[in-house]
Amino acid sequence: MNELFRRRHLTCASLTGLHRVAYLEWGDPANDRVVVCVHSLTRCARDFDALARALVPEYRVICVDLPGRGESDWLESPAEYIVPTYVNDVVTLIARLDVEQVDWVGTSLGGIVGMVLGARPGNPIRKLVVNDASPVIPAVALERFGTYLGTTPEFDSIQEAERYIRTLSAPFGPHSDAEWRFLTEHVVRPGDNGGFRMRYDPAIAVPYDAQRPFKDVDLWAFWDAITCRALVLRGAGSDVLGHDIAAQMTRRGPRAKLVEFPGIGHAPTLLHADQIAPVREFLLAPD
Predict the structure, then answer these.
(1) Could you give the 3-state DSSP secondary structure of residue 64?
(2) Mean pLDDT per 10-residue interval, the chain, length 287 residues
(3) DSSP H or E segment with residue 167
(4) Which of 65, 105, 157, 266 could share a disulfide with 72, CB 3.0–4.6 Å?
């Protein structure tokens, strides 16, 4: 099957050295209307395939693999798996794209990276879509992530890996068999003894575990500093972004528009038409 995107990469710098960040570029490379899509904690750039197809008639769509995920390098120092590293890498990427402004779609961690960047004076974000990311991250959600983050399960087959992803990602809500296979095959890689294992670097858990015992994380200062137009997506059953916090996001900072999806937890996958439509409508609406 011919892929509709181009696989690219760039070299980024951190305090301990250089690392390669991989990304997918959809659409006309000369188009200066750009949307940057950033995935969640352990996922990858391919999560945005369906959204990219819907946006590519109007946009150049850039889907990033954060360091330690997907096709990007693993970092030499696990301590650098933190939001400032990701912000710096994406700023480097935007400079490579040679555009003055971008729109942003971020799921969970990708939404937090967008919030932190969007709060900085002179930032390049024109419109911000936050997919189930919260300015108050509850300790209970951090505990849930901590039960699997950094583990290194081995799977004898892709079917076994898929069963694991279906269980781990049950809050994503109902998906077809083909969609669950898609959600699995891009986050696993061949294991050391045949079979498969998770693709992400288990060392991303190092700075995460350093926060134990977990407490609620307050990011309101970033949200309140954002001035661009914003859209918040929320799974109605999310344990990361509570309804009350999401409602506050419509009254504080950029006073975002809120769209909630029934029957979904953390986080909407943006694979389905009803989840893609509000993103497309928001991004293409006149300023």
Answers:
(1) strand
(2) 83 95 97 98 98 98 98 97 98 97 98 98 98 97 94 94 97 98 97 90 96 96 98 98 98 98 98 98 95
(3) helix 158-168
(4) 65
> Which pLDDT does position 193 carry in this prediction?
79
Residue 200 CA to residue 62 CA, distance in Å, equals: 20
Statement: the pTM of the whole predicted model exceeds 0.90: yes
φ and ψ at residue 269, rounded to 5 degrees: -85, -10
Q: Residue 1: its pLDDT value, please?
A: 37
Cis amide leading into 262 (omega within 30) = no
Residue listed under structure tokens 């009350």: 244
CATH architecture for the domain at 5-144+218-284: 3-Layer(aba) Sandwich (3.40)
Phi-psi group of 132: left, alpha or beta (phi > 0 → left; psi -120 to 50 → alpha; rest → beta): left
- Report H helices in 98-198: 109-118, 139-146, 158-168, 177-185
Can you tell me the distance from the alpha carbon of 143 to that of 146, in angstroms, rounded to the nearest whole number?
5
Q: At what angle do helices 109-118 and 83-97 cross, to 10 degrees?
A: 70
Strands 34-38 and 60-64: parallel
CA distance 198 to 233: 27
